[in-house]
Amino acid sequence: MTTQGAAAGTTGGPRAADGPCCPPSSPAGGGAQQAVTDLSPAVHAFLKALASPARQRVMLLFARGAELSVGQVAEATGLAQPRASEHLAELRRGGILTSHKDGKTVLYRADKHAGAVALAELQAFLRHCC
User: Fold this and answer.
1) Residue 129 confidence (pLDDT)
2) 47, 54, 92, 110 from 115: Cα distances, Å
3) Cα(90)–Cα(59) distance, rounded to whole angstroms?
4) pLDDT (tens digit, 9 = 90+) per residue, 58-90?
């Protein structure tokens, strides 16, 4: 049936049924190549953290090694403190920020190592996929 061939993507167009990015480049059971096509939960969290323009603005506050509290982030961005705290928590879950306590104050700073690891995995995925 020719309609089955078209539905399966054999017409040369995009094959959405094969996955979100691209068709598999090897036969089923390709082993090592499958590992490259699956992003880790850490990279998913990294991408989610970067998805918000507000979090991108917050992230830029940490350039050049700055350490900031929730109150400082709220003041610098004009966000309410609870909202700033939510954004900081998401950036921390995404591996973009790390935190430590200084007395009663929690200070946040960029986590360059975790960010570099997530970017390297994402680059490997994109090289394989696209």
Assistant:
1) 79
2) 10, 18, 11, 9
3) 11
4) 999 998 899 999 999 999 999 999 999 999 999
Tokens of 40: 């880790």
Per the CB < 8 A criterion, the answer to whether 81 and 3 are in contact is: no
Angle CA(92)–CA(95)–CA(99) in degrees, nearest 5? 45
* Cα–Cα distance for residue pair 97/113, rounded to 1 Å: 10
Bridge partners of 107, per DSSP, are 100
User: Could you say which residues of the chain have pLDDT below 70?
Assistant: 1-37
- pTM for this prediction: 0.69
Specify the pairing of strand 97-102 against strand 105-110.
antiparallel
What are the distances in angstroms from CA 38 to CA 33, 35, 46, 57?
Answer: 9, 6, 14, 29
Topology of the domain covering 40-130: Arc Repressor Mutant, subunit A (1.10.10)
